[in-house]
């Protein structure tokens, strides 16, 4: 009887995958349901902020039921890896189809979708010629004094952007850039990415730094009429098109070291990067696919699809995060 009971428990466990996620898209829920319908594997979701989920993982230790950690920004994935909580992904499909620069060290995590951190401007206040061939470095130019809005230095997206600059142009040059950029702030950093875009649309600033997918959300109308009208007033710039390309970050996932359902976790990640699911996901989240032959949503495609991407490895965002944070503090970026 005991053996039979144990066998039954194993069967139950084998039919589930437990996902800890800080993503907050309703469309993800539909994907989880579809995965269950397709495979018979139930997806159990624990949602929360990335930092809270990391603390939970550490507290649970070897007894954690978590199979997958799914979050945004390579810097957040690096924090989990630094704690030794991931194992290498063995899926041949993932390793073959996700570019190496979009995977973590030792393949312990992988991109599921991409996002560009870009510049927005209002063409009624800033001519197209003035921002032609614009680089991130140009945000520090004196001519943009009191004209730039961006989130605080606590924001991981900004920390990863600064880390990418350290990787590309060096620490000293990046610190000089950050110090001058702070002098160009139109206001003390505040709000989220969308509030930066709205500030430009309303004429409170001339340039805003924000992630590309936010303009897709705003243009979809799902965030309300005010954001829709603001989005229609601005244009988007992919910086550094004449040199290294626009800064690319990711949504990504890794399989946890003590995952009780490792095979199911591999199947789940393979499901997420399948062509059909990639198209569905990015049409809803307005991100970019990790697969070359999957086109972005109509809202995002309208800004251009053949832009040049910075090819440095996203793993460097985590590795250089401590340097980026210290540098931002020294520059006066609050």
What is the topological layout?
Blueprint (H helix, E strand, L loop, with lengths): L1 H13 L1 E6 L4 H14 L2 E6 L2 H11 L7 E5 L1 H9 L3 E2 L4 H6 L12 E12 L26 E2 L6 H14 L1 H13 L9 H9 L5 E5 H9 L4 H9 L1 E3 L10 E9 L5 H11 L2 H11 L2 E2 L8 H4 L13 H5 L1 H11 L3
Parallel strand pairs: 1-2, 1-3, 6-7
Antiparallel strand pairs: 3-9, 4-9, 5-7, 5-8, 5-9, 5-10
Task: Walk me through the structure.
It is a single chain. This protein has 15 helices and ten strands. The chain has 334 residues and is of the alpha/beta class. Strands 1, 2, 3, 4, 5, 6, 7, 8, 9 and 10 form a ten-stranded mixed β-sheet that branches. It starts with a helix and ends with a helix.
Helix residue percentage: 40-55%
Number of extended strands: 10
What distance separates the N and C termini?
63 Å
From the helix content, strand content and strand pairing, which structural class follows?
alpha/beta
What's the mean pLDDT score? 94
What's the shape? globular
Total helical elements: 15
Characterize the biggest β-sheet.
Answer: 10 strands, mixed
Strand content: 15-25%
Q: What is Rg?
A: 21 Å
């Amino acid at each position: 009887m005991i053996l039979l009971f144990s066998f039954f428990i194993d069967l139950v466990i084998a039919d589930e995958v437990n996902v800890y996620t800080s993503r907050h898209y309703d469309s993800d829920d539909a994907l989880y349901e579809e995965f269950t319908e397709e495979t018979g594997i139930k997806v159990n979701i624990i949602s929360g902020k990335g930092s809270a989920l990391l603390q939970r993982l550490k507290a649970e230790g070897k007894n954690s039921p978590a199979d997958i950690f799914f979050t945004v920004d390579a810097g957040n994935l690096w924090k989990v890896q630094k704690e030794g909580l991931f194992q290498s992904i063995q899926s041949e499909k993932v390793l073959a189809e996700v570019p190496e620069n979009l995977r973590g060290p030792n393949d312990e995590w992988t991109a599921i979708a991409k996002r560009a951190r870009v510049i927005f401007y209002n063409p009624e206040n800033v001519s197209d010629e003035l921002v032609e061939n614009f680089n991130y470095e140009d945000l520090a130019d004196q001519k943009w004094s009191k004209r730039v809005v961006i989130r605080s230095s606590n924001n991981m997206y900004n920390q990863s952007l600064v880390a990418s600059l350290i990787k590309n142009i060096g620490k000293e040059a990046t610190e000089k850039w950050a110090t001058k950029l702070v002098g160009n702030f139109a206001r003390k950093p505040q709000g989220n990415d969308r509030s930066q875009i709205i500030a430009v649309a309303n004429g409170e600033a001339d340039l805003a730094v924000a992630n590309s997918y936010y303009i897709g959300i705003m243009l979809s109308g799902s965030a309300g009429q005010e954001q829709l009208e603001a989005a229609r007033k601005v244009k988007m710039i992919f910086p550094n098109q004449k040199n290294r390309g626009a800064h690319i970050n990711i949504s990504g996932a890794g399989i946890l070291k003590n995952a009780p359902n490792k095979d199911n976790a591999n199947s789940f990640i393979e499901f997420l990067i399948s062509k059909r699911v990639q198209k569905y996901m990015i049409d809803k989240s307005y991100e970019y696919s990790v697969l070359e032959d999957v086109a972005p949503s109509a809202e995002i495609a309208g800004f251009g699809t053949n832009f040049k991407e910075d090819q440095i490895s996203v793993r460097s965002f985590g590795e250089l995060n401590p340097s980026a944070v210290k540098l931002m503090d020294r520059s006066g970026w609050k």
